[in-house]
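RECORD TYPE: inverse folding
INPUT: structure tokens
STRUCTURE:
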């Protein structure tokens, strides 16, 4: 008999090790990390520079491979997939938001949002996309080109694009890194609403305690290891936690 679990896991890594390079110059970017990202939650990954945040995100999202250990999206182990299946998984089950907005300049806002679906030949769920346009507040900009938008508006398009295919999990790598604090706050509020209103999962790498405070939970890395988790973070609590790492290291 199987027991139903109430907490679904959107993504996780188990005993994740990532070594870059070989010999004397080898860097152990992840040193045995096990962490799960619960479905329907907004999780931030934090830690000092070089602690392995981006590496963890890239390996969890199937953008890079682990040296040893395992990464899962839902129940699918990424290491078991050949290149073609991995590409399909990234296309159909995962969304991405990067620091650079990566919009196509010649396409309109509406076309940029549906681009991944159009490329895959999927019809997409038009009602879902219509609702997304309202969540990101771009109804009156749909026929504009990216160059006619502010940075914050461009990142909102990128967020809508990431959610367009109803992915199981959206990975965001420093999504507010190129934005002023006001636009950044809007994008973070938007990620939060997307999680709450549409029951999606977001995993975000950030070095900004204010950004991390928008998440439901923060996981902390130091020297390639998971060292702490914090529920209901505030910027002050996150900052204090980061300072404690620095005190230990100095
Ligand atoms: N492609 C690579 N080749 C060699 N070393 C790498 C590579 N990518 C990352 N590293 C090293 O792995 C470690 C972890 O890097 P990573 O980018 O994951 O850290 P981070 O916590 O995201 O850092 P930051 O906050 O500065 O972006 C660092 O020591 C980095 O120099």
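DESIGNED SEQUENCE:
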């Amino acid at each position: 008999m199987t027991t139903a679990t109430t907490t679904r896991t959107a993504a996780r890594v188990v005993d994740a090790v990532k070594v870059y390079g070989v010999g004397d110059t080898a860097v152990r970017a992840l040193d045995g990390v096990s962490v799960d990202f619960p479905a329907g939650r907004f999780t931030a990954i934090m830690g000092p520079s070089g602690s392995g945040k981006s590496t963890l995100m890239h390996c969890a999202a199937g953008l890079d491979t682990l040296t040893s250990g395992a990464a899962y999206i839902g129940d699918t182990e990424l290491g078991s997939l050949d290149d073609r299946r991995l590409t399909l998984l990234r296309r159909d089950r995962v969304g991405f938001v990067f620091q650079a907005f990566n919009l196509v300049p010649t396409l309109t806002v509406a076309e940029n949002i549906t681009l991944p679906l159009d490329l895959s030949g999927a019809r997409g769920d038009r009602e879902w996309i219509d609702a997304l346009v309202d969540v990101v507040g771009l109804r009156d900009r749909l026929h504009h080109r990216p160059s006619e938008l502010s940075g914050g508006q461009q990142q909102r398009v990128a967020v809508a694009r990431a959610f367009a295919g109803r992915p199981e999990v959206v990975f965001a790598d420093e999504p507010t890194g190129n934005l002023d604090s006001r636009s950044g706050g809007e994008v973070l509020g938007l990620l939060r609403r997307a999680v709450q209103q549409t029951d999606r999962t977001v995993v975000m790498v950030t070095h900004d305690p204010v950004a991390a405070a928008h998440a439901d939970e923060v996981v902390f890395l130091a020297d390639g290891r998971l060292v702490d988790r914090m529920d209901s973070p505030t910027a002050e609590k996150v900052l204090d936690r980061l300072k404690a790492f620095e005190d230990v290291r100095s």
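NOTES: Residues 181-198 form the longest helix (18 residues).
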